[in-house]
Design brief:
With about 140 residues, the protein is of the alpha/beta class. It has a single domain, classed as Rossmann fold. The chain is built from 4 helices and 5 strands. A 5-stranded parallel beta sheet has the order 2-1-3-4-5, sandwiched between helices. Bound molecules: flavin mononucleotide (FMN).
Length: about 140
């Protein structure tokens, strides 16, 4: 099975999750600036909320790489939201890509909120999540 990990981050929170996820999958996490060069059976996509939406570069990545994505599994952080599915589903639906019901989401530090998140416990949890998804 071919696994890939991509992420978008502004302050590093999502990169922490993506790096932990990638280590569990035995691959390297890359920024969404790095296109997929081969078909990914599972793409773990790290993205977070900015004004109730995902960054435009995440949308562009999905559209530009749709031929190399079989299924997206989201991993993300945010100050208060619980899931990234809503904004991402708008893109995957149009692009004809499967968006997994499985998702990992945790709090991310933002200004004075959620200090230190994602923390070590979050990183262990995302590793467990990835291991479980890969072995489903
Ligand atoms: C400009 C901006 C807008 C944000 N908007 C939201 C939001 O609408 N909802 C939310 O729950 N968190 C929001 N956040 C918090 C981020 O989603 C959170 O800090 C996340 O962990 C950032 O991940 P990153 O460090 O990988 O960029 C916002 C953060 C920034 C900087």
């Amino acid at each position: 099975m071919n696994i890939a990990v991509r992420y978008y981050t502004r302050s590093g929170n999502t990169k922490k999750l993506a790096d932990a996820a990638a280590s569990a999958a035995g691959v390297k996490a890359e920024n969404v600036d790095v296109p997929l060069t081969e078909k990914a059976d599972i793409l773990f996509l790290g993205c977070s909320y900015y004004a109730f939406d995902v960054d435009a570069s995440v949308k562009e990545f999905i559209v530009n790489n749709k031929d190399n994505i079989c299924k997206i599994v989201l991993i993300g952080t945010s100050a208060m939201m619980k899931s990234m599915k809503k904004p991402v589903r708008k893109i995957t639906k149009d692009a004809g890509i499967e968006l997994s019901e499985e998702e990992f989401h945790c709090k991310g530090e933002f200004k004075f909120a959620n200090k230190g998140r994602p923390n070590e416990e979050d990183l262990e949890s995302v590793k467990e999540f990835v291991g479980r998804v890969i072995n489903l």
